[in-house]
């Protein structure tokens, strides 16, 4: 063992050494349907606006302490109740850490239906909490009795509910969510990363229960490059969580860009509506392919199971060879055997995907 390897082995936590870093595929020249990004760029007029604003944003000072202008803009743009507080994160990934760090003593439990967003598990581990994933039913719907039993058994400090859920696309019913919120002894984080693609939201009920916050991101509505997420909740919850937030976590360029883009919010809404409208035709076309099962989705992606002559791994590879990237979940969890998660792309990208799949599956 080299000297460095020896020092690493004696220093880095064994559970960290065993992990792989969060996977981000190289995408040069590819059709990118693996990360639920919007395929649509901002229109010229918005980009001109951005260029002007960013030119005039001073970089020599730390971000201002008073973020009330941005706070007001975000609350107005996204329908956050006036009485709620909001906390900003460098992506909602950072907010997930903040919640776990603020709530969990070492070894205390973070719980979520599973499979769900992999970072709930990763962040919990990094932050010395214990993650409990409660298996979904075989059809990837929520197993409410199992959730309630697990909450009773593990008394989680934090429950994450991604609605719609990633990577399955399903949206848990309001009644199931209410039952989980009522049973949870700690904080329930409703992660609405994919809310722009459904009519449902917990936001109007944000302040009804004493233990709920709603987390959102702008990543799925055309701004994944900005790294901005927000968490809304009772101001007292937000004040506690804010103590853990890294200083100046939201840089001045992100703040300025966001304020500018939010003045053009209807553009983002129209792009999201387009993706939402294109979801069902894509799902139907996928479901018509031989050996493919598509799970119901309320998000900007669909989960498809390949169990014909070619399995998920083979189809994933064949698509990659044709420079089409989708996310392979075949080996991630037994409930996801054979499953690929496919973002809804532009009409041309969707057509290219379907034609490639026709080719691959009929070969
Ligand atoms: N929550 C869910 C359910 C997600 O799927 C994702 C992104 N994959 C995130 C949060 C993180 O989003 P962000 O880009 O804001 O960090």
Strand line-up of the largest beta sheet? 2-8-7-6-5-3-4
* CATH level-four homologous superfamily name of the largest domain: Type I PLP-dependent aspartate aminotransferase-like (Major domain)
| pLDDT < 50 stretches | none
- Mean pLDDT rating: 97
**How much helicity do the residues have?**
40-55%
Ligand names: 4'-deoxy-4'-aminopyridoxal-5'-phosphate
Structural class: alpha/beta
Task: Compute the number of strand runs.
Answer: 13
Kindly identify the CATH topology of the largest domain: Aspartate Aminotransferase, domain 2
Q: Number of helical runs? A: 13
User: Any idea of the CATH class of the largest domain?
Assistant: Alpha Beta
InterPro entries: Aminotransferase_I/II_large (IPR004839), HisP_aminotrans (IPR005861), PyrdxlP-dep_Trfase (IPR015424), PyrdxlP-dep_Trfase_major (IPR015421), PyrdxlP-dep_Trfase_small (IPR015422)
EC number: 2.6.1.9
Family: Belongs to the class-II pyridoxal-phosphate-dependent aminotransferase family. Histidinol-phosphate aminotransferase subfamily.
Keywords: Amino-acid biosynthesis, Aminotransferase, Histidine biosynthesis, Pyridoxal phosphate, Transferase
Can you describe this structure?
With 363 residues, the chain is an alpha/beta fold. It folds into 2 domains: 24-42 and 267-362, Aspartate Aminotransferase, domain 1; 60-264, Aspartate Aminotransferase, domain 2. The protein has 13 helices and 13 strands. A 7-stranded mixed β-sheet has the order 2-8-7-6-5-3-4, sandwiched between helices. Strand 5, helix 8 and strand 6 form a beta-alpha-beta unit. Helix 3 (44-55) packs antiparallel against helix 10 (252-262), helix 5 packs across helix 6 (118-126) and helix 7 packs parallel to helix 8 (174-183). The longest helix is centred in the last third of the chain and has 23 residues, at 265-287. The radius of gyration is 21 Å and the shape is globular. The mean pLDDT is 97. The structure holds 4'-deoxy-4'-aminopyridoxal-5'-phosphate. Residues 91-93, 117, 162, 166, 191, 193, 217, 219, 224, 229 line the site of 4'-deoxy-4'-aminopyridoxal-5'-phosphate.
């Amino acid at each position: 063992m080299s000297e460095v390897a020896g020092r690493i082995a004696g220093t880095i936590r064994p559970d960290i050494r065993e992990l792989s870093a969060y996977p981000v595929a190289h995408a040069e020249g590819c059709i990118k349907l693996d990360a639920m990004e919007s395929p649509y760029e901002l229109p010229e007029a918005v980009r001109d606006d951005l260029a002007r604003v960013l030119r005039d944003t001073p970089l020599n000072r730390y971000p201002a302490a008073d973020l009330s202008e941005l706070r007001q803009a975000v609350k107005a743009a996204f329908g956050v109740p006036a009485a709620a507080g909001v906390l900003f994160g460098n992506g909602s990934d950072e907010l997930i850490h903040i919640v776990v760090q603020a709530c969990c003593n070492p070894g205390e439990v973070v719980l979520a239906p599973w499979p769900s967003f992999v970072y709930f598990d990763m962040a919990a581990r990094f932050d010395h909490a214990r993650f409990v994933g409660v298996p979904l039913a075989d059809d990837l719907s929520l197993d409410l009795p199992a959730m309630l039993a697990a909450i009773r058994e593990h008394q989680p400090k934090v429950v994450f509910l991604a609605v719609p859920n990633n990577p399955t696309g399903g949206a848990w019913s309001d009644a199931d969510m209410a039952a989980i919120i009522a049973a949870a002894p700690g904080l329930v984080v409703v992660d609405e990363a994919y809310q722009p693609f459904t009519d449902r939201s917990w936001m109007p009920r944000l302040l009804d229960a004493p233990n709920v916050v709603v987390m959102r991101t702008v990543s799925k509505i055309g701004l994944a490059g900005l790294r901005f997420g927000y968490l809304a909740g009772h101001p007292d919850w937000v004040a506690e969580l804010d103590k853990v937030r890294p200083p100046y976590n939201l840089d001045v360029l992100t703040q300025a860009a966001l304020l500018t883009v939010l003045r053009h919010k209807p553009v983002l809404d129209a792009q999201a509506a387009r993706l939402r409208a294109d979801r069902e035709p894509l799902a139907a076309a996928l479901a018509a392919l031989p050996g493919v099962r598509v799970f119901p989705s309320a998000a900007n992606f669909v989960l498809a199971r390949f169990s014909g002559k070619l399995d998920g791994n083979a189809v994933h590879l064949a698509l990659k060879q044709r420079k089409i990237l989708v996310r392979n979940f075949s080996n991630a969890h037994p409930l996801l055997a054979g499953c690929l998660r496919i973002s809804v792309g532009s009409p041309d990208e969707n057509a290219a995907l379907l034609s490639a799949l026709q080719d691959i599956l009929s070969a």
